[in-house]
Design a protein that fits this description.
The protein is an all-alpha fold. It has 3 helices and no strands.
Amino acid sequence: MALSSHERPAAPAPHPPPLPPTAAEPSIGDLISEIGQDVSQLVRDEIELAKAEIKQESAKAGKAVGMLGGAGYAGHVVLLFGSLTVVFALANVMDPAWAALIVTALWAAVGAVLYVAGRKRLRTVNLKPEQTVETLKEDARWARHLTS
């Protein structure tokens, strides 16, 4: 009995020919060149980050120093005009020399308070680029794990 085309078993499909490799594996020289470029880019990025951090902290320090200078100038002006007023007022009660000495001591105390406040504010400035240091540590850990 002859089998119809629907009843016949299908012939096994021929195996497709192997595909040629699309790209050869990179050579060691290419890999080393790529690593060198990556490291170079990493160093450039870290330098830019450090510059940005230092610029930010420098601006903070500049503002603190400006405040100290402003406090010094304002203190000087107030010292001059206020001192004259108080000296003349006290001169009605005591010897003018003693009045001048009392006013001078008062402004010395004010100047000391301004100095301490300005110094305290300057101590909050951190010129160490913390974020850059942390990313460098992360990069070093990453590089060590690549070689392990």
